[in-house]
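Good morning C.,

I know you're traveling, so I'll keep this short. The sequence:
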Amino acid sequence: MRQRSSYPKPFKAQVVQECLQPGATVSSVAISHGINANVIRKWLPIYRDKPVAPLPAFVPLQPIPKRHADEAVVIALPLGDKSITVKWPISDPDGC
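The C-alpha cells, ready to paste straight into the viewer:
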C-alpha cells in the first residue's frame, strides 16, 4: 500500500498562491507539481490568505575531502595461488 505524501507548509502556501494567479487553474498547477488536484483544493481555504515564505534556493551539502596526491588505485586479480596487482597514482589517471 502506498504511503500518503507529506508536504511542507511553505510549499503548500506557494502552490495555493500559484492557483490564485490570473489564468491558472487548480488542475494545471496540480499537474505541474505532480499532486492530485483534490489535495490542493483542501489546501485552498487554509493557505489562501497566508503570505508565501520563499523556499530555499539550494540545499547545503558537505564538501567531499580532497584526495591526497600520493593515493593510488589498486586492482588485484587472484590467479590460483598467485595474483596480479596493478597500482597507479590517482594524480596520473592517463599514465596507466
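Safe travels,
E.
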